[in-house]
Amino acid sequence: MKILILGAGAVGLTLAAKLSSVCYVHAVCRQRHADKIKAEGFKMTGLWGEATTSFSCSETAPQDDYDYIILSSKSTATEAVCKQFAEVIKGREVVSMQNGLGNEEIIAQYTDKVIGGTIITGFEWAGDAQIHVSVETGPMNLGRFPFGMDENVMRLVELVKSAGIQVKGSENIMSSVWSKVLYNSALNPLGAVMGVPYGKLADMHAWNIIEHIVEEAFMVAEAEGVVLPWKNAEEYLVFLSDFQLPNTAGHHSSMYQDITSGRKTEIDFINGAIAARAAKLGIDAPYNTFIAEQIRFMEQLQSK
Known about the structure:
CATH architecture of the largest domain: 3-Layer(aba) Sandwich
Number of domains: 2
Shape: globular
CATH superfamily of the largest domain: NAD(P)-binding Rossmann-like Domain
Largest sheet: 8 strands, mixed
Distance between the termini: 46 Å
Strand content: 15-25%
Mean pLDDT: 96
Number of helices: 12
Helix content: 40-55%
CATH class of the largest domain: Alpha Beta
Structural class: alpha/beta
C-alpha cells in the first residue's frame, strides 16, 4: 500500500514515521526537515514511543499510484495545497487530518473521495524533524465524508491500527469533527490570549467564558443537524472538566505557539467558523465572535 502525506508538519511527519513501518510513505514537507530526515532520520519521543525512522520525503510529490493521500496541513493552507496538488489529488482517496470546520468541503472540490479524520494528540516540535508526542485524549477517528462507512475507510483504519496507533472507524465523522471543534474552541484561543497552559483555564473566571463558547457551539452544531456524543452543552462541559482538561493540563495551545512564532492561526476554522455559521443560521454567538476577533488582533500585532 502507498500513502502520500501532503502538508506534513508535526502531525504529518509523525504519522509518516509510524505508517512507514507497515507501508510505503512519502511525505511532502519543508526542505529542512527532508534534509534532516535523509541525513539523520526522523526522531520521535513521548507517548507514541521513542524511535528514529527514515522514510521518503521532499518538497514535491512524486507521481505514483497512491492508495490514500493524507492532508495534514494547517487549515489555513488547505485551499492552497489542494490547488498545488490538484492533479495528484483528483479521483483519489483524500483524508483530512486537520483542525476545524470546512476542510472536507474544500477537499471535496478536488476529489469525490473524501475521508474525514480527527486526532486529539499533542505533537510538539523538539527541533527540525524531531517531535515529542506529549498528550493523547482519545483515538484517531476516520469516516467517509459527509457520513457513512465503506471498505476503503475500513482498510485505512486497519492499516493505521497495524502501525500501533489507536484508531476507530466512524459512521458519523462530522460528529467526531465537531467534537474536536468543541475541545479546540473552548481551550485553544483562550489559552493563547492568556498565554497559559490548559490547566490554568480551570479558574472560575476562565471557565465562565468557556461555558458560553461551548453553549454557542452546541447551538450551531444542533442547528446543522449534527448528532454529538453528549446530550447538551452541560454534559460536554463535565467531560471537558473531568477528563480532557486534566489530561492536557500542561499543554500550550497551538494558537499560542503560532502567535508567539508570528504565524497565522486556525481561528477562522474554529471559533471564527462557529461565529460565521451562527450568523448564517440567525444564532447569536458573541463569545465566539469576540474571542475570534481577539486572536485576529493578536495576529496583526505580531505581524507588524
